[in-house]
Known about the structure:
The complex is a heterodimer of chains A (about 110) and B (about 110).
Chain A: E1 4-7, E2 10-14, E3 19-25, E4 30-38, E5 45-51, E6 56-59, E7 62-67, E8 72-77, E9 86-94, E10 101-103, E11 107-112
Parallel strand pairs in A: 2-11
Antiparallel strand pairs in A: 1-3, 3-8, 4-5, 4-9, 6-7, 7-8, 9-10, 9-11
Chain B: E1 4-7, E2 10-13, E3 19-25, E4 31-37, E5 44-51, E6 54-57, E7 64-66, E8 76-78, E9 87-94, E10 102-103, E11 107-111
Parallel strand pairs in B: 2-11
Antiparallel strand pairs in B: 1-3, 3-8, 4-5, 4-9, 5-6, 7-8, 9-10, 9-11
Amino acid sequence: KNQVEQSPQSLIILEGKNCTLQCNYTVSPFSNLRWYKQDTGRGPVSLTIMTFSENTKSNGRYTATLDADTKQSSLHITASQLSDSASYICVVREEAAGNKLTFGGGTRVLVKP
Amino acid sequence: DGGITQSPKYLFRKEGQNVTLSCEQNLNHDAMYWYRQDPGQGLRLIYYSQIVNDFQKGDIAEGYSVSREKKESFPLTVTSAQKNPTAFYLCASSLGGQETQYFGPGTRLLVL
């Protein structure tokens, strides 16, 4: 069964600090990997998307990396702000099987002043 | 103002009652989806529709029903057969089946 595992489940960081979130997946064959940001009580919003040939993608203070060989991705948040408090969800799309999406359980980030 | 909207924001269901969640988009997207989100778990696909008047079951369709009579609308009915309906329900749409999915703000369903 294809899976997407994220770690940690939650973390607390001080405003201005950096943090890195992890995503391991078993989806194969792999089409692309996307990171979403979900504010509490809202729908997810896409941050980055990477295909298997890309190993890094940035969106402002968010930088995603991908290692397709080890099936790992990370999302790095630089100089965190209070507005970064949210859940971050890793989503992997299969190349076959109707291009199905498999969602990770998310990492809940709390940025404290 | 383009986007995808869901209503209501909160919905309460009595035991044995069917309830319908609304999802509307004015993005001219062909594909629409319904997901269920439970705490600590990944989103799970309930139903999806690639085109008007056609829809497919997702991974957890039991106890749910949908219709796609108009391109911009994809309502989800939670029937009395769904024994554990308490969850956050998210609707999404995309231009095509492989394109970026854009999510609505969600509806939280609670059981009285």
